[in-house]
Write a structure and sequence with these properties.
With 439 residues, the chain is of the alpha+beta class. The chain contains 5 helices and 25 strands. β15 and β16 form a beta hairpin.
């Protein structure tokens, strides 16, 4: 049985905990940003990317919430040293370093990227501003006055295509509009863009989000024929064009068909846990159990969404013989740094299942480390294995809570799959597993 991480934490974990406690203690001192809502802006190639930050006092000290439409992401690691303020994003290694002057904050968001290609994005925030893009947008999303001409409305489902050079990626847009305010998300074959917020002013649609992991900005125009066309920026290094048309039946196809085994029906690996001990599905601990293997990373926002679901499933069903193994592909080739990132991820969601350091956050690298698969196309990718060790289903990508009915459907399918596998009898297992097929 893999030893619980708490039982053998190496020195770098101790240093991480000391750092975390220092941040927490700093957040309790007086001074720092005023409580209340701040309008924050990141400067990206597409222009201003706004989001909300709300500073509040809770038991134990000051915390902040990143606000994107209905989503509020809690940030409890806040360091204040004179006029210097640092916010470390929950479960991520990204951080905001800013200088406080009265009711303004200015500084830099550091987005940690693989191979040392970190992004430095200008950041500023002002206390008391509640609008997203336009100062005259109604904060209460009031509808037009009686008798007024109805404004254009983008509510509903959209069939979307993101175009990057010669590559087209299909997507589904789910948008909701109240007055001029718009919320929603885009769902792609590899995951969703999580909670977006913005507005429709005339025929100009603006959406944005920063949730600790995503830096997303969208500009689009609503044409007379009802279609949308615009641009999408992710961070400071990626840009797509996109088009969209209304389609209540828009679909992305079957997420259970993209990733497959190259040969046979068994899957295995051998990677170290956070204490450096190698773990394999052939270990006695997993024999006779239903196992879900998740290809994930702490840098991946949709992996955060899936972790919440897997923690819930594991807590409710492990007594019936259910286990989860998360193969973490982190942004660092260094084992200690990857372990620290994974430890923060575990702490954020109360993960008690096995997490292994499998490689770096690159799909080609991940595919080379898992040659039994025909490729790694998305983080997360989720593999369902029965009590006899056979792969029964592989799900590519993840539809998070922002996708509404898509998320609800996927959660039901995950739960049904696990329950069906748990209901099967434990087969007679040989003391030694047969060799896996060569690929």
């Amino acid at each position: 049985m893999p030893i619980a991480p708490a039982a053998r934490r190496p020195l770098h974990w101790m240093l991480l905990m000391i750092s975390t406690l220092a941040l927490a203690s700093c957040s309790r001192i007086d001074g720092g940003p005023r409580d209340g809502l701040w309008r924050a802006v990141l400067q990206v190639p597409g222009g201003e990317l706004p989001f909300g930050i709300e500073f509040v006092r809770e038991e134990g000290g000051r915390v902040a919430y990143l606000v994107n439409g209905p989503e509020r992401t809690r940030v409890n690691e806040i360091a204040v040293n004179g006029d210097a303020v640092t916010l470390r994003m929950p479960g991520f290694n990204n951080r905001i370093d800013a200088t406080l002057e009265g009711d303004t904050l200015s500084g830099t968001l550091t987005m940690v990227k693989p191979k040392g290609k970190d992004q430095q994005i200008p950041f500023r925030a002002r206390h008391g501003d509640a609008f997203r893009f336009s100062p005259d947008s109604p904060a209460d999303a009031s509808p037009p006055a009686p008798g007024a001409t109805p404004a254009p409305d983008v509510s509903g489902r959209w069939a979307v295509v993101f175009a990057d050079g010669g590559k087209n990626t299909p997507a589904i847009g789910e948008l909701s509009q109240k007055g001029s305010l718009v919320t929603g998300t885009f769902l792609t074959p590899t995951g969703d863009h999580r909670f977006l917020a913005g507005e429709l002013r005339g025929r100009q649609l603006r959406l944005s989000k920063f949730d600790g992991g995503h830096v997303f900005l969208y500009h689009a125009t609503l044409a007379d024929d009802g279609t949308l066309a615009g641009q999408f920026w992710s961070g400071i290094a990626f840009e797509d064009r996109f088009t969209a048309r209304r389609d209540d039946n828009a679909s992305l196809g079957d997420a259970d068909q993209a990733t497959k085994l190259v040969a046979g029906d068994r899957f295995d690996f051998r990677f170290p846990d956070l204490g450096g001990v190698n773990v394999s599905l052939r270990d006695q601990f997993f024999k006779g159990k239903v196992v879900v293997v998740a290809l994930a990373g702490s840098w991946c926002p949709n992996c955060h969404d899936e972790a919440k679901l897997l923690v819930d499933l594991h807590n409710r069903k492990r007594a019936q013989g259910f286990e989860v193994v998360s193969l973490m592909f982190e942004q660092f080739g260094d084992f200690n740094r990857a372990s620290e990132a994974t430890y923060r991820f575990r702490e954020q969601y109360g993960i008690e299942y096995t997490t292994l350091i499998a490689g770096i956050s690159d799909k080609d690298d991940a595919a080379s480390r898992l040659p039994q698969l025909n490729g790694v196309f998305a983080f997360p990718t989720t593999i369902f294995i029965d009590r006899g060790g056979k792969v029964r289903k592989i799900h590519t990508g993840f539809a998070g809570p922002a996708t509404g009915v898509h998320h609800e459907k996927m959660v039901r399918e995950f739960e049904r799959t696990v329950e069906a596998l748990l209901a099967e009898p434990v087969p007679d297992l040989p003391p030694t597993e047969p060799a896996l097929p060569k690929v």
